[in-house]
Specification:
The chain is an alpha+beta fold. The chain contains 2 helices and 2 strands, in the order βαβα. The model has no long low-confidence stretch (mean pLDDT 90).
């Protein structure tokens, strides 16, 4: 599981690319914080 913060989208691109390469998932912490959803 890859957790990331991204304001401009660059970190998102890297996280999604790495997750795909590792056959794993990724999770945007920005979205979770905006929705006040802190559960993983």
């Amino acid at each position: 599981m890859i957790l990331y913060f991204s304001a401009s989208g660059n970190s998102r691109f890297i996280a999604e690319t790495a997750a795909e390469s590792l056959q794993d998932g990724c999770l945007c912490l920005n979205d979770r914080m905006k929705n006040q959803d802190c559960k993983l």
